[in-house]
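Lab channel / #folding
Pinned by the channel admin:
"Please post every new chain as: sequence first, then the structure tokens as a reply. Keep commentary short and put observations after the output so the thread stays searchable."

First post following the new format, from NK:
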Amino acid sequence: MTDAGQGWIYSGGKKLRCGYTTGSCAAGAAKAAAKMLFERRVCTAVHISTPAGKTLILPVEQPLLEESSASCAVRKDGGDDADATDGLLIFAKADRIPGAGQVAICGGPGVGVVTKPGLDRPVGDAAINSVPRSMIRREVGEVLDEEGAEGGVRITLSVPGGEEAARKTFNGKLGITGGISILGTSGIVEPMSEKALLDTIRAELSQRRALRDTDLIIAPGNFGLKFLSEQYGIAPERAVICSNFLGDALDMAVEDGFSSALIVGHIGKLVKVGSGIFNTHSHIADGRMETLAACGVEAGADEAALRRVLSCNTTEDAIESMMADGIWEAVLSRLLVRIDRRLSERVRGELKTGCVLFSSRQGLLGQTDAAGELLARAKADV
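Reply from TO:
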């Protein structure tokens, strides 16, 4: 990719401009700052490699070379998928530190701090996620190698306006305070409208029916595909990704005449189905802890245990809390019954449905009654 990393995709019949994540901006600024520190000259553009396998050429803004440090910024560009962070300058300051090859990463003003457990980083850490940290270490490490540096470098990230921008995000609810998160798994922002996503799901289903498939596997995202592969040996391409649009995908499956649908996903998404929420995007509805608490009431859990569930930040934390209180198995049983009923209601009994729940920490959690049969069918076709 050239021209500041701008690329294009065609989605829903439209040509949409790609952008790059805050993680790519941070990695680019960090690399440029390190180059300035060791080469002792101003840097105006920098190349970085993304986890998606694409090379970005990022323009560098506000370069500042001082006697013992260097700093610069890369401006966040979300392409045609702009969000609250679009246009922010992601600054990186580079300082020498002892230790050959060492790359220390810190958060400064405008970068959030994690205050609740269950997120990518531990409590107290800057909200700079694992993939951006790896990108920064790789890109800055290349500079250290090229320059034959005897020591290492400390990279401090800051985002002017980051605290204000974070108020427009879900950071506060997640327990990230004081600024934005430095995020991104691929390094690239690929815009896709809601209609385009639904069109994609429709096209996949139509293709499978054309191939005479009758049993459908649905996963909300890549976590589900990985779990299918690792747990059951089912190839990721066998499943249709529905993103947050599980209800729409099920409606389409009924319309297209499938005989069954097996849904495999992380509990953080699929717990919402227990309350009849079939668009699982956090902007639409949450209800994760409320659903688990309702299941706890049905299971006869005491008030103190339910209050602990309601105070949890993530479903992973809630599971551990319920395990500690000895109510998890009963709550899970009620949740699976709820999910099973809601799925049947959504498809009006016109196809058999099953659901498999897993978590990142606990692995396989459980499955609805029909899931075993549907899994056996899927594995028989491998």
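NK: The first strand starts at residue 8 and ends at 11.
TO: also worth noting, The longest helix spans residues 328-347.
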